Each structure stands twice: as structure tokens, then as C-alpha cells.
Amino acid sequence: MYLNANVKRPGLALACSWLCLVLFQASVNISHAAEPRIAVIYPVVKKPYSTVFEQIIAGIAAEAKTGISQYGLEGMDEEQGAVIQEWLLGQKSDAIVVLGRRGIEAARNLELSIPSVFGGVLYVSNTMLDNAVGISLTPGPKQLFSQLKQLSPRTKRIFVVYNPARYQWLIDLAKPAAAALGITLVTKVAEGLRDSARIHRDILKQAKRRTDSVWLLQDSSIMGSNTILPMILKESWNKKLIVFSSNPSDVPRGILFSFYADNKALGRNLAKLALDQLNPRQQSSAFILPLPNALSAVNLRTAGHLGLHIPFEEQRKFGLVFPRK
After folding, report:
1. What tens digit of pLDDT does each residue of 303-316 get?
2. Please, which contacts does 108-114 make with residues 24 or more away whose CB atoms are closer than 8 Å?
3. Which pTM was predicted?
């Protein structure tokens, strides 16, 4: 028996169309099922601090392909770990982002079988979270030094005092960043506030006004805001020495410039990092990364005192300008 190819077979055509529709729907369902889901654990805090976490979470949600799950930490007790663990199992998440010091403390007590990413903190010991990676609120040395070079092209040397337990990872990034710009980075280790004060006094005495600068880290163990910072501000002002900081709150007080987080952009980057951990080829080899896409702040009064001219068009590129008008 032979079949005539020209004969129309409506039943067969209908069956084929139905089969194609089923296969298409199945592929759509599979693709949706394959989209990774992100869980977010964050501390519940009062305003205005809560706004920071709200913006970070909004950024995570914007970057994630599917909806995110959120768990707000009111506090920490022995029973809450079990509650969070049960919540995570129910969410069937593929990766987790933990925010703030409290979020990290909660995550370290969990038995996690999924990649974890942390953010919303300045630094973390690599013993706090196993197999985790995160983004610090500390701006990257490359961005800081590039801004310095733009404002003061003659700068050849940067002094910095640091606590290795908290910022060795940052200094390791700072050395090649400085060298790439033709700058010598002079690092000094401090063992507390008294040691830090002595080292900073010595630096301020030997630093040269036109070619040297001082970089301050945001670290309460070596930077006393009521003792060391006022001394640095006074001496650097008298000597007309450039001082810049990783702490944006130093800028209104007289430090030349700093950088601060674009919280929503930080959330996007945390989501990207979390999703990258699901792909062995894209996993980060670093435990902690500096703040990307940071916004800048500048003190124009300090710049004028130092003899640095910042054109109006350049001023508009800063996120925050002090003194406020």
C-alpha cells in the first residue's frame, strides 16, 4: 500500500500540532525550573539603617531571574538556627546571600549545601564562613588611587597604617594597584590605637606635601575618631598634605575624598556573585572582594586649601560634595 503525499491528513496535522505544543510547554517549564533561586538573610534594624538593606535587597531582586526569598533576623538565639535551616529547606533555594554581621553569624551556624555569599560588612575573617565569598563595603584601592591621581597627578607615594587581621587582603590588592599608577605604597602595621597614633605622627612628619599622601582605612582598632583622626586632620591641614579615606564619614570632617556604596548596585553585584558560584568556571577565587561601582564624595574646602583645582564639570561627577550649600 502506498501513501499519497499530496493527500491532506487533518488528524495527523492536529496531532503534530498538539505534540509540538506539549513539547514547547515542557521546555518552558524545564527552563523555568532551571532558573536558580536566591535566598536572602538580613538583619532587621531601625531606620535609617534599614534603608541600606532594603536597597541592597532591591538590587538582588532586580538582578535575579526569579523571585527571591527573604528572612529578616530580629535577633539571634539557640533556636533560631533550626528555624532558619527549616525555612531554607522549604524555599528550595540554589544560593544564599547573607547581609550584615548578624546575617553572617546566623549563616555560620547553618549546615549549608548551597553556595553562600556575604555582603553589607567591611571585613570578615575567612574562618567565619566556610566555602563562602563576599563583597566588602570597603572601596577598592584601584578606584581610590585613580581618583587620587586625577586630583593630584604629582603624587608618587602613599602611606597607609593597617591591621593585618582585618585588611591584609586589601593591602594585597593595593600594592599592584599603586604600582600600575607609578605610586609607591608604604605600608605600616599597627597593633592598636596607641601604636597607630605614634606611626601616624611619624608619617605626618616625614611626608612631603607635593608628592606624598596618606590613606586612612575604616578600622576602629587603629583609627580613633575622637583622638587619631583629629590629630591627622590638624597636622595635615597645617602641612597642606593630601589625606584620603576609605570611610566616607571622614569627608565632611575635612578629609579630601572617599567612596561609598551604591546600595542597589551592590545588591546586583551580590546576586551576580551568588549565581556565579553555581558555575565552576565562574567561581571567584578570592574570599572577599572590594566594593565595586562605588560613588565618590569630596570636600571642596579641603581641596581649595590644598591648592587643588576641581573644575565645575568634574565636581558634578561626585555623588556627594562638602561643605553642603
Report:
1. 999 999 999 999 99
2. 109/81, 110/81, 110/84, 110/85, 111/85, 112/88
3. 0.86
